[in-house]
Structures are given as C-alpha cells and as structure tokens.
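Notebook entry, structure prediction.
Reason for the run: the old model in the group folder had no record of what sequence produced it. Starting over properly, with the input documented here first.
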Amino acid sequence: MAENKRNSDFTATGVSGEDYKPYISPDENIREFTVRAILIGCVLAILFGAANAYLAMKIGMTICASIPAAVIGMALLKCFKNSTVLENNIVQTVGSSGEALAAGVAFTLPALLIMNLDIRITTVFVIAATGGILGCLLMIPLRKFLIKDEHGKLPYPEGTACAEVVVAGKEGGASAKMLFKGLGIGAAFKFLTNGICLFPEELDIPLKGYLKGGAVGADVYPSLLGAGFLVGPRISAMSLAGSLVGWFGVLPLIYMVGQYAPEAIGGIADIPISEMDHWDMWTYYLKYVGIGSVVMGGFISLFKALPIIVKSFKGTFGAYKKGESEVKRTERNVPVKLIIILAIVILAVIAFQPVFPSVAAGSIGAILVLIFGFIFVAVSAHLVGYVGSSNNPIVAMAIGSLLVTAILFRVMGFNGTSGVTAVVIIGSIICICIGVSGDMAQDLKTGFLLGSTPAKQQYGQMIGILCSAAVMGAVIIMLDKVYTIGSKDLAAPHANMIKSLAEGVMSGNLPWTLILAGMGIALAVWLLGGEVLPFSVGLYLPIHLSTTMMVGGIIRGIVDKKLKCSDDIRAKKVEKGTLYASGYIAGDALMGVLATALIYCGTGIDSWGFLDFARTDNAWVSTVVFCVVIAYFCYQVFSSKGESELSGRDIQM
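New structure, fully documented this time:
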C-alpha cells in the first residue's frame, strides 16, 4: 500500500495531539515490524551499545544513537525497493536501544571491577536486561500523556528531528554520505592512536610557579570534538568552567597547603601531598569535590523536577480512566496484563539475586528499584522532552537513589563487600531504567509523528535491549583486560564515583569535608544561574576532556551567532555539522572497541615492529595531526559544499 503523506511539518505548534494527523494515516497498514528491520536494528543496537560502553568509560558521556541509526538504517533499507518509513522507524528504535542500555550499564557496573570483584557475562546480562526491560515497561503507561496529550508542549527535539530524517531519507542519501565520511575520519584517527599507537592521545602540561599542582592539556579524541559541537558553546563552556575551578583553583590550593605536611592528610591517600603529582591529587582529593558537586546537581535537578513528577502521575492515571471502545492502530500499546506479568517476573529476578543475604533483603531491593524506577522514569521521560536525551542527568538521578539505598542497607546492618555490591547493582538497574526510558520517549515521539504502531516499537525496543545486553558483559570484560577499568587509560569516571559513594556510605568513611565543599560550589553555580550538572561533571573530570569539547563548542557558537548568513543557510550548516560530528563520535567509539578487540585477541597491532620508525611519544605530534582533523571539520561546516542537498532540518542530538 502506498504511503500517505498526511503531515510532514513535525514542528508545527498549535495542533493538539488529538487533532494531529501523522505522516502515515492510522487507517493504513503498511510494512513496519519486519524481519529485516529487526535484524538491521539488532546489529546497530550491538554496535552502538559496544561503542557507547567504550565512550562512557573513556570520556564519561555517550552519543544519542537515534539519528545515526536512522541514517544508517535508511542507507541499508534502500537496498530493498519496497522499504517504508515505518520500517526505518523500527530500525532506529531497535538500534538506539543499545546506546541507552550501554549508558546505564557502563556508568555503574564497572564499579564492581574497580573494587577488584569478578563479574560474569551472565551477571551483566541479567542486570542489563532486567533494568532495560523494566525501563520500557514503566514508560509504556506514560506514553499517551507525554507523547500524545502533551503534543505541542513537549518538543522532544531528538525524536522530532529523527522523524524528519526518516522522511528525508525517502528523498536522497546526502545525510548518509556525510555521516559515513565523518565516521571514517573518526575511525581512522582512532586507529592511528589506539590501534597501531603511532602517537599518544593526550597532551598534558603541568603548571608551575604559583599554580603548581594544577595542569592543562587536551585529549585528542574526535568524539570530544563532535560532542562539543552537538552540546553547543553554553554546555561546553560550563564544563570547562568546572575544570578550570578544579585544575586552576582547587588543585593548586591543595598543593600550596599540603606541600608542608610531612604525612598523608585526611586518611584518604597513603602518601604526603608533597610527593604527589597533579594526577595523584585529582585521584585522592579533587574527585571527591567533584562527586559532591554532582550529588548537589542531582538534588537540584530532582527539586526542579517535582512539578514534573506530579504532572506526569496525574496525566498517566487520568489517561487510563479514559476507556476507548475502539483503539486505533496508532494508539495500541503492549497489553496491560503482559506489562504486569513481566514486571512481576523482573522484580522476582531482582529479589532472588545471590548478592543479597536473604530474600527479605532482596525484596527490599526490588521494592526500591520499583519506587525509584517509576519516579525517575517519569522525570526522565518528561525531562528529555525539553532538553533531549543527551542532556538527561541519569547519573545524578541514579546517585540519589543509590545514596538512599546505601543508607537503608547500612541501617539494616547489611554492609561489607556484599552490601556495597548490592547497592551498586540496585543503582545500576535504576540507572539503566532511567536511560532506557528517556531514549524510548524520544523513539515513541518519532513514531507518533510518523504514524507508527506503539506496541511494535515497544516490542522492538525490548528486542534491541536483549541483544545489546547479551554482548555488554563481554565488552566490559574485554576493555578491563586490555586497559584496566579505573586506570588512567580507561578512567570510567562515573563508575568510580558510584564505587566511592557506595563504599563510603556503607563504611562511614566518606571524606565529607571535600564532598560538602563540592556541594557548596555547585549551589553557588546554581544561584548564579549556571548549568549545574555540566559544571559539576567538568569539575569531576580531567580538564583535558573539557578543553577539546570547548573547541567543538566554539565552532558551533560561531555558526549559531557569529556567522553572517541567512537563517536557511545557517540551519543547513548546523545540520551538516551535526552529521559530521555524529560520524566523528561513532567512528571514534567503534574503532576504539575494534582496536581493543584486536589487542585482546593477541594480534599485536599495538606493537607491530615495522611501524617503530613512525612511532613517537611526543604529544605535540598528535596535537598537530588532530588540528588537521579539526580543520577538515571546520571546512565542511563553514563551506557551502553539499548544502544544496540538505533541507536545513534541526537535527540537534
């Protein structure tokens, strides 16, 4: 049956969800939930899941995969003459689920490896699958209120952009070409640094004189350049501001005072500050200041989200009171009975986890997962409607639930290594729930605009979650074997934070002075009107990440504000830059995983002897080469090349 273009103006305002006419009419039944769409989506879910697990532990952030998955799916489905936009929508729904799952898993579960505990592939699969499926189930009752009833009020930027990309895919392949070019460049650069190790990835310059103890530098990651462009100058600047406070303020102050102390201070480190370099001081002191700042950022986000929680609950229960004698195709969800059965099974699986000393303790853990999961899923699904999935503070929300869980378990006398492990696992399941629900909300918005069947998207999301969960454990274990998770090569910042908080609360040994100082700094930033979470993450992470992100943010700022051109041309430059930036990120991450796999398999690519003549430890060489990557990106963004093939859609990530 031919596709019926009912409405392709997805950003139109003033149209209620009840009156909106989707791109494909509800009366039409065209090809949607097909084997080929599911298979392509599953492959993309695995690839983007592995890539984002690597990114999460390497740079502390992930890329939203909906638009890259839609573009790649569009290119692959063109091989079939009878493909449809609804098939492509299923591809991006299934494919992007891997990214959402990876964020929750990689931000939390590596904490167990940092604690020198062994984790099995099956353990990771169970935790990832339960958290991911529960996130889907908790999101389903919210769909009608958030996606349909709030249409025109909640823009869901990535979901709307993805719908436009899917429709545009029927008209040409310019978007795919740009994305793949960026992917190739990102992958090639990563292969030179991580694969055959021709030059280092980090420029590190210790400060001297009055700022001794601090440092400045840059990590030459194409992913950071792309991420800076996607989040824009404001968020990039706030992240860099946090890093400047930490590396130009806190660290020099710690060194100035600590250099006169003959012994270790505070019981945190086992060596005096006078014998530490800036990396040691970051590890033992500055990270706790950053943790306090992130925790306060989470509390502030929760406080601001209270009206959202109340509104979401009212809307959800109100929607279920409205019975419909005949449900249209575009309104069909997974049956309520199936939701209840699956939720009970998942909660039972959590309760009987062997990490708990008793079923009673496990049951309390399962109840906490359900309570915090439902609260934060509602917040997450509503929040991404305004700020997008990439700005969803899932770690901050997960930390809030983790702290409450840790305190409750300690009061119950459930402590020690097993207690910390249980707290981390509960925090991980909640974090995965939050991440998956945010991604699913964007996907359901895309489906609402296109006229898809919600139930088919929901089933597709669950299939993608199970596929990516099946490989997540192998990816994490492989990365740990090659780089050692928690080391300087793969810092896993969020997992480190989770581990420190869980151990500190359960043992009562948290360095509260440093944490409270960080909370005070975050509170001051909020009172000044700043973006607290980006600032806090910048304070927690090394400055080397923020400086490279700022380069991408500056390029985006020039396009948005300083470039003299028409709004139409500006929109096309942003679209083009977004595609190349997404490619840089995806190529960097995918090659990072591939290079790790090759090293893990013993191929020796990192030490091929015939390349010794070209290898160097001089970080300035890698900086110069990286400048070429930056220059090419600028050329593509600022030139008019390829703009005639674009429509100027706002596809911000």
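Summary: The longest helix spans residues 278-321.
The old model has been moved to the deprecated folder.
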